[in-house]
Amino acid sequence: MNFLLKKMKEIEPLFEKGGRFEKLHSVYDGFATFLFVSDKVTSKGTHIRDYMDMKRTMTVVLIALMPALLFGCYNIGLQHTRAFGIDDWTLMQMFWFGFLKLLPMIIVSYVVGLGIEFVAAQIRGHEINEGYLVTGMLIPLIMPIDVPLWMVAVSVAFAVIIGKEIFGGTGMNILNPALTARAFLFFSYPGWMTGDAVWIEGLVKGGGLDGFSGATPLAVAKLEGIAHMPSAMDMFIGTIPGSVGETSTVAILIGALILLLTGVGSWRIMLSMTLGALGIGLLLNATGGNDYTQIPAYYHLIMGGFAFGTVFMATDPVTAAQTNTGKYIYGALTGILVVVIRVFNPAYPEGTMLAILLMNVMAPLIDHYVVNANIRRRIKRIRTA
Amino acid sequence: MEKVEKEPLLSAKNIKLLKNPLGQDNPITVQVLGICSALAVTVKMKPAIVMAISVMVVLAVSNVVIAALRKSIPGRIRIIVQLVVIATMVILVDQFLKAFAFDVSKQLSVFVGLIITNCIIMGRLEAFAMANKPWPSFLDGLGNAWGYGWILIAVSFFREFLGTGSIMGFPVMEKLGVYNFGYEDNGMMILPPMALITVGIIIWVQRARNKSLIETK
Amino acid sequence: MKDFSNRYIMVFSVVMVVSVAILLSLTALLLQPRQEKNVEVEKKIQILSSMNVSSDRSNAVELYDRHIIESFVINTEGNRVEGVDAFTVTLRAEQRKPLAEQSLPMFIAVADNGDTLHIIPLEGKGLWGPIWGYVSLKKDLSTIAGVTFDHKGETPGLGAEINTTPFESQFHDKTIFENGNFVSVKVVKGGARPGNPHEVDAISGGTITSNGLQAMVHDGLIKYEKYLSQNRK
Q: Do C23 and B100 touch (CB under 8 A)?
């Protein structure tokens, strides 16, 4: 490592102002800070610069994603064996099968996304934003496994350009880029994002067992009735069809623990979102309305994309509310919306994506009112004093 | 300011009336008027072209009528007079479409009727035709309608090409055989949000090329 | 702008309104026959399409007159109702009436190969709006010769697929009766069982539209059950 550090320092002048590769400074900087902790110090005034820069934050999130990713690989293999009636695969075989299916998606996501980020950074003369490191991993995890790779590429390009660069890059975006990519695919190529066959590798091309339905628990509840849903235990562990990373609540909870212990993820949002969903779920259980209102409230927490969305999407520090009070409101409303969309919308069984995107848009408004309320309160205090 | 000297029909000033609305004074991308119909009728090129022509007829004729009557219209009821003229023109256009271009009029459905509410038209009547002679008003109407129309047609070109793989109903993508390689049409292009995003991209390109359009805070 | 007297304003308004009214009524009067013709041709094209005769604006009327030999209205008891023109019945209005009072249109056609076909119009609800169509039955009044469906605004790529040939052609030779009992045709999610004469594949991802279509076919045809049973040869 020392050798590498020396080498990097050695070539640094080339990228400084006036150096030969001045134009590529952002590329150099990107790599250098990715490899080593930033040694930047402020030159004017007194500021404290934390070593915990954005890259470290991103790394923590990536580590937190690993359990879901690994379980996702295994589950791809598992669902494949179930659908095709294979019963002699070992655990490693299933995992390896899933890993090889997932890897190209991850590569495409990173190559396209980082490529656009590099180009945009050069044009603007900015540093390369590391925001994409996490987005690039999230995107494959929230896709059905059988989505064609070129569609992944198109949706990544859309999300990065329209969802992020137009607003000024990482930190300026209104919508969560990974969810933007998913929403784009969802509305653009619905044949690949909905239905029963898409969640299991190879089923779209046919050849699955007769009468085997690859429907997600949400779709099952909608079409065959709540009684046919998988058991709560299966949904909690995650051996059910669904997007790659979203099925296992256990794996996501491990990730949540990592995020909370390191202080990277906001516990306020996670807590209020869970309570919001649970609350509206119980309310609907009590009032009724249509068949889906009878889905037990806690089911909403362990099926579909709720857990994944709560832990990794809603807590995105850029697109969530910024004020602490705002975070509670934002989280609770997102949780409520997820369940409302699931229960009352006939067309889209998956509510998490739409709920979070909608609340992303509302977040600045929530902050605005929270800040204003605070200002009013303090003015009042001054007047009465 | 009555002019004694007769102005040539296409003087520099008049040409400007025709040209400005196409670019730097475009009703859709700069003034952001008439957006709703730009979203609704741009799924395919044919309805978009018919819509553009309809708006052109309505706007040009209403402009001329109002400009011709401008000195005899009582100021107190001028808005109502303008509305009556526009509404009459729109109903005429709608009736003609229903009779002679039934298929397209079915696709345009209520949006022909909604030309009445298109802000561009009221805006031009009130801002230009009420204070100018018929001929410049006619040119102004043509210019603005064409400025509106070309955006409509451009948006509909992208939406039809990417959304259904055809241009003017001709299945280009199918003829190229790209479906055999796993290509699929983009369903989102057919949905209204994509029209808004396409208009947004056109505005982006326009402002990137013409910095004077960027507002200063 | 000059200031005008009230009297001037009154006269101006009256003249304006009257001239506009005259202009518009004249146009409406002149164009109405053409517009009605358009609507009529549209309907004829659809009816022809359900018996697998493709037509366009230029020849629809001619083909319709050649193929459709009779049209009449029946009630749910299977008896003919006199004095109603089958062609002008609007199903949406009929469906709001009590069942016994509904007029059920029926078109009798002769196909190119000489077969007699019975064509029944349908109307129902999709996901986002109305869907409608025509079903033509062969001589046994059970086997479907062809169908045509259309919709107002179903989701492109999903529900909107109901008016495409791959979906419609599935209905060919399906039967709506099983041993004399009405069973309709089911739209089965996940694929129809091969060889089952009462099932077609649903549209993947277009479940609500598929279900709406299945309900439309069932609810529409069951009203004709008595007539079809009585007249079966």
A: no
